[in-house]
Amino acid sequence: MIRTVICLLGLISTTACVMRPPAAAHTPVGNLIVYSATYAPTLEQSEYPAHTDYNVATPDGKVIQHVKNATGSYGSRPAIVSLSPGQYYVRAQYDRGGFVVITVVIEPGKTTVLDLNGEPLPQG
Question: What is the pTM of this model?
Answer without folding.
Answer: 0.70
